[in-house]
Specification:
Distance between the termini: 76 Å
Largest sheet: 7 strands, mixed
Radius of gyration: 31 Å
Strand content: 5-15%
Oligomer: single chain
Strand order of the largest sheet: 4-3-9-5-8-7-6
Low-confidence stretches: 1-22, 672-676, 678-682
Helix content: 40-55%
Number of strands: 19
Mean pLDDT: 85
Length: 682
Amino acid sequence: MVRQLQPCERNTKECPKDEQVSDPFSIEKCISIIRKLYEDREGWLAPFPWCEEFQFNLDNIFTRLKFVSRRREGGTKTDDIVDMFLIFQPHEECSQPRRVLIEGRPGMGKTTYCDKIAYDWAKKRKGGESFPDVILVLLLKCRDINWGLWEAIDDQLLPREMNKEEKERFFTFIRNHQSKVLLVLDGLDELPSSQLSIYKEIIQGRVLPECYIVVTTRRESRVEVRNCCHTLLEVEGFAKNDAEEYILRYFKEEEDLAEKLLDKLDSDTTLQELTANPLNTALLCLLWEDSRGKLPGSRSLLYLEIVECVLRRYRLKMKLPEKDQDLLALYQVELKQLGCIAMEGLHNDSMYFDQSVFQGLSSDLISGLGFLSVEAGRSKRRAGRSYGFLHKSFQEFFAALYRCCQLLDGQISVDSLIADRRYFDAFQQVLMFMSGMLAQKCEAAVKVLIAGIATQVNLQDSHLEAALACINECKREDNSFHKEVAHFFGSHLQLQNAFCYRLNKELGAVCIDSMKTNSTVTDLSLSFCGIDDASAAALAEQFQENSTLTSLNLSYNAIGEVGVDALAKGLKGNSTLTTLRLSSNAIGNVGADALAKGLKENSTLTSLDLGDNQIGDVGADALAKGLKENSTLTSLNLSNKAIETDGAAALAKGLKENLMLTALYMCNNAIGKPVLMHWLRD
């Protein structure tokens, strides 16, 4: 990222003639000290303070992050992926960008990226072609800033022994060489509000206008600085291949474990979502290593095992005897206290706090357990220590643990808890963790919670997805209890229309399970929900028992010949379904034949959508034969590119014997449609 200055260049580029003196802190020496500071401090990744051996050299473990471009006006995301080392490259909104804003959710790698910039500069490495060739990088952590820029540089970077005159000479050097300075402001959302106006002027370019600037912040925070920056990016954490590379680096000495975890990652959507977050990927690797390749089936169980793993390591570190007792029960008091702090922080929209929140509690013990990052701060002036949760998901987990304890102890009721609508919005992860933890502790308690959630869904159907996610968290080792909870939820659901869109495969299956005992939903939509053959078969079984469902939308899923065959058999005995949408699946000719047989015996279906399903002439012929014996279907969509002359001819013959069908859609059939229309006129 920075070219190494040759000895002959240093006097002209780093040290003006009047500064070439033998004082202890020449400009050259000061820059060298800052380089060494970054090399020692930023060169190591130590994500978990409770595990001293769990730290890596940045070079050995660092994996590229996925950056995407955003438009400055409105902040809308584009489809442009930006190389993380080419963030200063020109673009259509700015030909010479100097100020870059990087947004992202917590734990996505913003801070590690800033450390990487400083570390590479310290190691005198060059960046990409568009990365500025600078002679000084100033990395400032905003959470430790309580003063103006010069005071912050002094506080976080300069040697304590520098006197006032030496510091001022260094600051003058920065002012005189702005175009060779990169200022990195990490965590603008953590900057004290009293300092925002000062640093906004810096980001606007009103102070040090020629300086290169990188600013990181959470996506939802400090949006008022977006228009001040030339380039707006969002870090999305790890792309799938980046997570895979990280896992391979982590298990470079145990390739078999790496391969097993990668295989698991390919098929598990929960893990795929988890590994987009770099910190969670590190935790996953640690747990996979400890369990020697075994993971639980839900996020709640995963975090419970992580907590137990951390507690075991804490006891090992403290040389405490091994315990057969449940460690979560053993440390319940401390974990509950931590949960109380976590819940208060969520209410204040903050992950960080100082010692005052402990209020006489044992801060050393709570922080020593290892779920908090504990820093004396990079500030030389701030007294005391600052604390923060390793990641927001841990804060949400402990907040949920605290609420679970309150529910089980009778300190709060389910009704009073979920009356707070934030549990279906900002606190949704807390509600999910609560459901998962209660499922492990008390079946009666979790069912009371699910009944309460169902009541809220009945009042506002937009909460349905959150409810399904909570049910999915109720998995236990037997992997069947969550289905029982789904049936319980379905019996309490009083909606008529249930619209689910772009659910993952697991939540789609939960929704299907909940319909088994429901008697109110008449219109169910599960489009873009990963419904496969197995889920379609499970839904088909319910056709025999469900007497209320009249409309079913399964478009844009992964239903193939096996799944559609099950649906077709279910149609034979169903007497209520009138509309079935199956567009954009993988039904094909064999599936069309199965549906045709089902149509012969079905007497209620009036509308069938089979568009974009690779149905060709053979499938069209089978459907035409089914139409001859069906007396209820009025609308059929066969929009396909595969139906040609023979298929169109077969359909025309079938239609001549079917007096009910009034609408036939055959868009995109370049050959079939004209022929069909010709024969219908005849």
